[in-house]
């Protein structure tokens, strides 16, 4: 799979967040590198079947809907809603101090297109199922980890 | 064609000591359970011609597997015509489903099925619970590497297994009005069942207030929503129905569901029997987290989607003497995480009337047992010896 040439959205530095801790970097493989490095220009890209237009995540080389083999990466709006969330209080990763919010975010592009992620810049009191959020990124090694924050707080909503 | 279910039975059950930080060689635990099950069936190791296990010997998080098929073959001097071990089965009890299929197909006559864990001792030895509970696993010196492809979708975000259960719980609380008091009922009923079960791990009383005050792991999942890692081994002998020495103690298979998914596994099981949910006398559902038990009750058709928390509300319906006694040996929440094998053992004891101090007065004739969650699931409908 290859990344589509960038078609919109100029580089957007505000989408990059700097955190006080280091995340574990995912391995960049042929299958997933385009997803993990997509945030370098502030744009989230999701694997998409060129045959039927369906998005798929995590990236796979075959479209499960039409079995098409022509799967690439397409830019998305980065907007979604919180499908569910939890305030994690356990230190699963030594470098990542709790508490932090883990969420499943459903992207606006397609029902059921969900990403496990963290919601940042948001107090737990404000969080709710259905909260509109927008993507931002945190560097980890060569990867740009897609995170989300409330859309209103982003100034873009 | 005769169904596979009617060709096989559970002829013997066995268990090792099961507990916290036993510090016992997991092969010793395995031998305890295996030899007990073979003797319980009225057989000797020379009669065993098949072995099936979940997940078997492979690199894994510490303690998740204590022995493999070949460890047991060599240790017990078995001569095998059929053997199978693996993690991508229909839930942990997919290993038992596989044994039924092998027996029904004539590949084996008496299959030893076992599950051995030593997570409690391993977590002590490796010094970190987090290392053993992170998706993808690792060890204390290599804590968060990517043990498998899947881990890259969770580890960069600091997601441990309980976070997934928490997401399900939170969505139910916000969209369906589920309450922590309702999830608590699964934990409270399990604990009061454990109090009557000599072999359970946590037997001291648990109150609703203690549940509500408990330390949060991944809010709303608290400590008491999580099952307890233990050391131990449980084994069964699955035999050709026509070849069991003592049919009067053989537990029957009424229907098996091996489909991928809670709902799909349960639906497949019901499609293979004339029995209905109303016929079930006791349920042993997989309770790695309280919300998994709720999810299984819904999948099995005891209530509708997102109605599971109302179903268990107040606890009386799922307590002994209630409409559907649940996890009567304490489940994994209070009895220890034997990964579905504990539930199947409890179901067999109840159906044979051998559960001792916690035997249900009703004399259950039909039991349902489930294992696993999400994509790796199985559902087993069992009958009392006839
Ligand atoms: Zn397609």
From TrEMBL, chain B:
InterPro entries: Thiolase (IPR002155), Thiolase-like (IPR016039), Thiolase_C_2 (IPR055140). Residues 260-378 form the Thiolase C-terminal domain. GO terms for molecular function: acyltransferase activity, transferring groups other than amino-acyl groups. CDD domains: SCP-x_thiolase. It comes from the Bacteria. This is Thiolase family protein. It comes from Frankia nepalensis.
């Amino acid at each position: 799979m290859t990344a589509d040439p960038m078609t919109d959205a100029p580089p957007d530095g505000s989408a990059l967040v700097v955190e006080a801790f280091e995340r574990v970097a995912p391995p960049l493989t042929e299958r997933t590198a385009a997803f993990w490095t997509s945030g370098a220009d502030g744009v989230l890209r999701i694997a998409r079947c060129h045959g039927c237009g369906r998005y798929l995540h995590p990236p796979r080389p075959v479209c499960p809907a039409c079995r098409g083999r022509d799967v690439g990466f397409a830019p998305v709006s980065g907007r979604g809603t919180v499908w569910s969330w939890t305030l994690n209080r356990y230190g699963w990763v030594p470098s990542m101090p709790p508490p932090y919010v883990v969420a499943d975010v459903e992207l606006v592009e397609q029902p059921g297109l969900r990403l496990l992620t963290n919601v940042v810049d948001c107090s737990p009191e404000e969080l709710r199922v259905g909260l509109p959020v927008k993507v931002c990124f945190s560097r980890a090694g060569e990867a740009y980890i897609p995170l989300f924050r409330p859309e209103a707080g982003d100034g873009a909503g | 064609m005769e169904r596979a279910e009617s060709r096989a039975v559970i002829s013997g059950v066995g268990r090792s000591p099961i507990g916290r930080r036993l510090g016992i060689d997991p092969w010793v635990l395995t031998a305890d359970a295996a030899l007990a099950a073979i003797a319980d069936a009225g057989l000797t190791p020379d009669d065993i011609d098949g072995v099936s296990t979940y997940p078997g010997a492979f690199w894994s998080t510490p303690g998740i597997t204590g022995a493999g098929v070949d460890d047991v073959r060599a240790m017990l001097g078995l001569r095998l015509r059929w053997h199978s071990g693996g993690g991508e089965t229909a839930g942990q009890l997919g290993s038992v489903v596989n044994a039924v299929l092998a027996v029904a197909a004539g590949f084996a006559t008496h299959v030893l099925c076992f599950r051995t864990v030593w997570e409690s001792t391993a977590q002590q030895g490796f010094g970190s619970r987090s290392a053993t509970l992170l998706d993808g696993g690792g060890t204390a010196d290599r804590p968060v590497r990517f043990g498998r492809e899947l881990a890259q979708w969770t580890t960069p975000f600091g997601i441990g297994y309980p976070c997934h259960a928490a997401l399900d719980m939170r969505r139910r609380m916000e969209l369906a009005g589920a309450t922590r008091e309702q999830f608590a009922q699964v934990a409270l009923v399990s604990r009061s069942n454990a109090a009557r079960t000599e072999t359970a791990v946590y037997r001291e009383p648990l109150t609703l207030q203690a549940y509500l005050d408990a330390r949060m792991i991944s809010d709303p999942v608290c400590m008491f929503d999580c099952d307890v890692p233990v050391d131990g081994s449980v084994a069964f002998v699955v035999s050709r129905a026509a070849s069991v020495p003592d049919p009067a103690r053989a537990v029957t298979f009424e229907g098996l569901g091996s489909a991928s998914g809670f709902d799909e596994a349960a639906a497949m099981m019901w499609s293979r029997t004339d029995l209905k949910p109303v016929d079930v006398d006791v349920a042993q559902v997989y309770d790695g987290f309280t919300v998994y038990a709720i999810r299984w009750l819904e999948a099995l058709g005891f209530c509708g989607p997102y109605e599971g928390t109302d179903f268990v509300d107040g606890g009386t319906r799922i307590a002994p003497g209630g409409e559907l006694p649940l996890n009567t040996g304490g489940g994994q929440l209070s009895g220890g995480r034997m990964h579905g094998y504990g539930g199947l053992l409890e179901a067999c004891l109840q159906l044979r009337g051998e559960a001792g101090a916690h035997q249900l007065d009703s004399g259950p004739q039909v039991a349902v047992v489930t294992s696993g969650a999400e994509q790796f699931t199985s559902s087993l409908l069992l009958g009392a010896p006839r």
